[in-house]
């Protein structure tokens, strides 16, 4: 029978030709291999760490044949939370910091820092601001003296806000603890100043004391680890602090949710392609459009919001 006169024969002929064509293409095609980027960073205490995948560098988004592992992805053990301290848990003290820097400049007869520099580099370490941005001094002893005097001025200005938490902060942290989600609090302030602040709040019982003496302490249940400026060499928007927090959480970068309130935090999170939740605070919503989720406060965040960030995983 003529194959051209029979429609079904034409279909079979076309199907066989297509199969042979695909078979030849697939034999010559180069197979795609999933790769994972490894970065090794050394913290300020010379502790090397990397954020490679914990599952022997197997990409996290591959289909899993193990039903128990698929079930684990539905729970809270799938991700970890890095939470910026200023502007998320405690009030944003950027205005107080700017005022303290200006008061220090007048007191020491130094050049007044520009408003743009203080606003744009507000999440840098104090040592970086004094030596690299304000260009006040490059002597380490003089830098430490200026920073100590600056914090004395700052303590006098924020005495009224001491011990205050933002609305919904305590409830949010308690819900994280109840769901056994590991969490690291991130700040660019000195550890002694943060511990002094926490001693006057109800968060003191939730902080881990062991991390103060050992940077390799891993977050356990019932406590939060704290990453301060003493643990890293550079402040935000450098990614070092996020990588250190990811190492403490024992989670790869792809399973991290970063909750922040500054443009510097958003820049660092997007550089690592971390799921990012931003609190609007002093910024407009369109300024934070690169974040995965923008909310007005912690009261608008629930577990389902965080879980939905991994809908494509």
Indicate the structural class.
Answer: alpha/beta
Strand content: 5-15%
Number of strands: 8
CATH T-level topology of the largest domain: Rossmann fold
Helix content: 25-40%
Identify the overall geometry: elongated
Quote the distance from N terminus to C terminus.
52 Å
H-E string: HEEHEHHHHHEHHEHEHEEH
Number of helices: 12
Let me know the CATH homologous superfamily of the largest domain.
Answer: HAD superfamily/HAD-like
- State mean pLDDT (0 to 100 scale): 75
CATH class bucket of the largest domain: Alpha Beta
Biggest sheet overview: 6 strands, parallel
Low-confidence stretches: 1-60, 209-221
Sheet with the most strands: spatial strand order: 5-4-3-6-7-8
Number of domains: 2
Radius of gyration (CA) equals 25 Å
Architecture of the largest domain, CATH level 2? Answer: 3-Layer(aba) Sandwich
State the main characteristics.
alpha/beta; 313 residues; 12 helices; 2 domains; 8 strands; 10% strand; 6-stranded parallel β-sheet; Rossmann fold; disordered N terminus; single chain; two-stranded antiparallel sheet
Could you give the topology of this structure?
Blueprint: H1 7-28, E1 40-42, E2 48-50, H2 67-73, E3 80-84, H3 94-107, H4 115-120, H5 126-133, H6 140-157, H7 169-178, E4 183-186, H8 191-198, H9 210-213, E5 225-227, H10 240-249, E6 256-260, H11 263-271, E7 275-279, E8 293-295, H12 303-308
Parallel strand pairs: 3-4, 3-6, 4-5, 6-7, 7-8
Antiparallel strand pairs: 1-2
Helix pairs in contact: 3-6, 5-6
């Amino acid at each position: 029978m003529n194959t051209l006169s029979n429609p079904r024969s034409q279909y079979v002929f076309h199907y066989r030709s297509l199969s042979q064509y695909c078979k030849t293409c697939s034999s010559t095609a180069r197979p795609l291999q999933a790769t994972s980027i490894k970065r090794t960073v050394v913290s300020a205490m010379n502790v090397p760490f990397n954020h490679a995948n914990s599952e022997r560098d197997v990409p996290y988004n591959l289909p899993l044949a193990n039903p128990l592992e698929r079930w684990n992805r539905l729970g809270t053990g799938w991700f970890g939370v890095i939470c910026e301290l200023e502007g998320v848990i405690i009030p944003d003290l950027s205005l107080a910091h700017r005022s303290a820097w200006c008061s220090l400049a007048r007191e020491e007869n130094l050049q007044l820092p520009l408003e743009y520099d203080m606003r744009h580099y507000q999440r840098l370490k104090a040592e970086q601001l004094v030596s690299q941005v304000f260009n006040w001094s490059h002597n380490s002893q003089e830098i430490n003296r200026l920073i100590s005097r600056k914090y004395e001025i700052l303590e006098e200005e924020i005495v009224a806000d001491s011990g205050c938490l933002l609305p919904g902060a305590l409830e949010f942290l308690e819900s994280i603890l109840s769901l056994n989600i590991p969490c690291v609090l991130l700040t660019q302030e000195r550890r002694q100043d943060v511990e002094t602040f926490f001693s006057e709040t109800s968060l003191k019982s939730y902080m881990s004391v062991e991390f103060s003496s050992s940077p390799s302490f891993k977050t356990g249940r019932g406590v939060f680890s704290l990453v301060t400026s003493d643990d890293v060499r550079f402040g935000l928007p450098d990614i070092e602090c996020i990588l250190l927090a990811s190492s403490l959480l024992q989670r790869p970068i792809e399973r991290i949710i970063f909750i922040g309130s500054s443009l510097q935090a958003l820049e660092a999170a997007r550089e690592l392609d971390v799921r990012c939740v931003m609190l609007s605070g002093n910024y407009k919503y369109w300024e934070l459009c690169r974040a995965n989720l923008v909310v007005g406060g912690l009261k608008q965040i629930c577990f389902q919001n965080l879980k939905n960030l991994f809908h494509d995983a």
